[in-house]
Design goal:
Strand content: 15-25%
Order of helices and strands: EHHEEH
Distance between the termini: 31 Å
Helix content: 40-55%
């Protein structure tokens, strides 16, 4: 398990997708992505060993694929 910033997550997993960093932070706040918030308010995405940080990975991946079209 490793922690990466929201920007690193976007660059690593969805470099060509039209996602904003605010959208990814909303996913973290709403529990769609595994992550944690520091006391200073910075979000980190927790990437497990299998590489899929989404809590409900199949549904989220379907939606992202639709957005990429």
């Amino acid at each position: 398990m490793k922690k990466i910033t929201v920007k690193q997550f976007k660059d690593l997993f969805y470099p060509d997708a039209d996602l904003t960093l605010a959208t990814i932070r909303n996913w973290l706040r709403n529990g769609h992505l595994a992550g944690e918030k520091t006391p200073s308010g910075i979000w980190f995405v927790i990437v497990p060993e299998d590489g899929c940080p989404f809590i409900h990975s199949s549904r989220v991946n379907e939606l992202l694929k639709m957005m990429e079209k």
